[in-house]
Structure formats: structure tokens, C-alpha cells
Amino acid sequence: MKQDNNKAAANGIGFTGSLTVAFIVLKLTHVIEWSWLWVLSPIWIPIAFVLAGLFIALIVLIIKEALK
Q1: What pLDDT sits at residue 11?
Q2: Helices 41-67 and 14-28 sit at what angle, rounded to 10 degrees?
Q3: DSSP readout, 7-55?
Q4: pLDDT of residue 13
Q5: pLDDT tens digits for the chain (68 residues)?
Q6: DSSP letter at 3?
Q7: Nearest-angstrom CA–CA distance, 59 and 68
Q8: Distance from the CA of 60 to the CA of which of 20, 34, 44, 52 falls in 20 to 30 A?
């Protein structure tokens, strides 16, 4: 029997995907009255953290180059 060493990396939609789906269902069933900005926040908040980290890394790199 031949074993396949290739394993799938993805195991589903993950926590943020599940949370987004839950918020959308709650919004559409009028359980919550949040704006769509906050309903979709599980999608954009991690992106904002990554962008903030990249921005901070860029600033640190610029400062290091300026001090040389």
C-alpha cells in the first residue's frame, strides 16, 4: 500500500470565519442590530493587526537605517 505524505493544510473555515457567519446570521435574523461594519469585523480586524505590524516594522527599519 502506498502512503501519501501530502497533507491538507486547511481544516475548515476557522474561528474568524465561523464567527463571521454567526454574526451575519444574527444580523439577518434581527437578533443583533449592529452595523455591517461590526458584523464583518472578524474579517477586517486580523487584517488590520497584520497591516499595523508591517507598518511598525517598516518604521523600525527606517529608524535603524537613519541611525547608521
Answers
A1: 75
A2: 140
A3: --S--SSHHHHHHHHHHHHHHHTTS----HHHHTHHHHHHHHHHHHHHH
A4: 86
A5: 556 566 656 678 899 999 999 999 999 999 999 999 999 999 999 999 999 999 999 999 999 999 98
A6: P
A7: 15
A8: 44
